[in-house]
Write a structure and sequence with these properties.
mainly alpha, Citrate Synthase, domain 1, Cytochrome p450-Terp, domain 2, 2% strand, globular, binds carboxymethyldethia coenzyme *A
């Protein structure tokens, strides 16, 4: 039995009990009011989902299972996955056991490579990643367990089994896609002794004499691992899995959402923006030139990539973690200097414009630059790295939901006409003195 299955077997009855007691006591309590604009506008800010793995605090940033992300920046992805799933950091022994379990599952079957090789060479790497996972669905232990009539309370066990297989194989699949798609080279074999991040970095096959790229990949995988349950990829994965579709279906679907330019593709947009600045102003513009450029950029109706956030209202601590990495390694590169210069200037420019609720940088303001300066120059690939990492958080979220046995997702939709009627009904009702205008 896997170390995670062992620990979760102890935790599952406790969590279920807490969940049942909560529903019995508070199931009918009113917890929020919803505005018509939120219904019609992406449900922004509506507390409508349960997510135990992480929380984004507007004034602080990401916490994984209650621990601020900056306290976790030196951990390995295996430790983070264990934490996401159980709420506890593993002992050294359990971390090593999990590392071994993932490494033992790292080989991607030949039928996947054969199918990927047959796809047109201009296929997007995210499409290849999603397709690769979907092809492996035939091996799902979850689907087989469901078809065999396994009771619902036990289904989290084959779900965990699938998550371990899927996560074990994901770095091999992702690295192989990089080699096939961008270098016309064969995928590298995983090293069964190596940890998840080192294996991934090594299989990409980039020169890494000092092991710094490996350290960057480890940090990247830790920082992108989870960001609550309401973002497009996590919500998609959860919705698909709530129909008791297995994790191969759910994570493949989640990755399709991550591939969107408003979600996981933003990091490549940010790097493109920096290269565009260099092209327009030269490699090292002065502050005045840069400020003028930014003003004109905004005046033309465009956004400054890497700045602002739907939830955060401070500098993203994940930006800080990457920045510290660059400082700690004394990284000298014009693009990194430009990131620093923008950090000095952009918040003032955005505040002066007065539109963005958050003028501070998010993780994308620096993540792409670090990959680029370490030789990973294929922009289109960046979201794949993001996806490998985020699969950990989404798998953990699916696992918690299956343990609690939460029901299928089925919010009520309304037509615009119905929404108008509802809005009129509510606005004609007398308001409490204390209710917001
Ligand atoms: N540059 C210029 N204008 C910005 C801005 C930025 N970086 N961030 C927000 N604004 C503008 C919005 O476009 C909006 O303008 P309109 O009223 O004209 O529509 C206004 O400020 C208010 O927006 P907001 O409530 O502060 O931000 P949203 O929650 O609507 O959007 C986000 C959040 C991230 C999409 C937005 O800040 C943005 O487009 N940033 C640049 C792209 C980016 O960095 N994306 C990565 C996000 C990382 C992540 O999600 O994890």
């Amino acid at each position: 039995m896997s170390v995670l299955a062992e620990r979760l077997s102890q935790l599952a009855p406790v969590w279920r009990q807490q969940y049942r007691e909560f529903l019995a006591e508070y199931g009918n309590a009113v917890v929020a009011e919803i505005r018509a604009g939120q219904v019609a506008g992406g449900m922004r800010g509506v507390p409508a989902l349960l997510c135990e793995t992480s929380l984004v605090i507007p004034t602080e940033g990401l916490r994984i299972r209650g621990i601020p992300i900056l306290e976790l920046e030196d951990r390995t992805p295996e430790e983070i996955f264990y934490l996401l799933c159980t709420g506890e950091l593993p002992s050294a022994e359990h971390r090593a056991a999990l590392q071994q379990e993932l490494a033992q599952r790292a080989t991607v079957p030949a039928y996947v490579w054969n199918a990927l090789r047959a796809l047109p060479s201009d296929s997007h790497p995210m499409a290849l990643l999603s397709a690769g996972l979907l092809m492996m669905e035939r091996e799902s232990a979850f689907r087989k367990a469901f078809e065999a009539g396994t009771p619902r309370a036990e289904l989290w066990k084959p779900l965990l089994e699938d998550c371990l297989t899927l996560l074990g194989r994901l770095p091999t699949l992702a690295a192989g896609i990089y080699r096939l798609r961008f270098h016309g080279a064969e995928p590298n074999e995983p090293n069964p002794q190596a940890d998840w991040a080192s294996n991934y970095a090594a299989m990409l096959g980039l020169p890494d004499p000092e092991g710094r790229f490996r350290d960057l990949v480890r940090l990247y995988l830790v920082l992108h691992s989870d960001h609550e349950g309401g973002n497009v990829s996590a919500l998609t994965g959860y919705t698909v899995a709530s129909a008791l579709s297995d994790p191969f279906y759910a994570i493949s679907a989640a990755l399709n959402g991550l591939a969107g330019p408003l979600h996981g593709l933003a990091n490549q947009e940010c790097l493109r923006f920096l290269l565009h600045i260099q092209q327009e102003l030269g490699p090292a513009p002065d502050d005045h030139q840069l400020e003028q450029f930014l003003e004109q950029w905004l005046a033309s109706g465009r956004v400054i990539p890497g700045y602002g956030h739907a939830v955060l209202r401070v500098t993203d601590p994940r930006f800080t973690a990457f920045r510290t990495f660059a400082q700690r390694h004394g990284l000298q590169h014009e693009l990194i200097a430009l990131v620093e210069q923008l950090y000095r200037i952009v918040p003032t420019v955005l505040q002066r414009q007065g539109k963005a609720k958050n003028p501070w940088p998010n993780i994308d303001a620096i993540s792409g630059v670090l990959l680029y300066t370490h030789g990973l120059r294929e922009f289109e690939y960046y979201t794949v790295l993001f996806g490998v990492s985020r699969a950990m958080g989404i798998c953990a979220q699916l696992l918690v939901h299956r343990i609690l046995d939460t029901p299928i997702m089925r919010p009520k939709s309304v037509t615009l006409e119905q929404l108008r009627t509802m809005a009129l009904e509510h606005s004609s009702q007398p308001q409490d003195a204390g209710s917001p205008a």
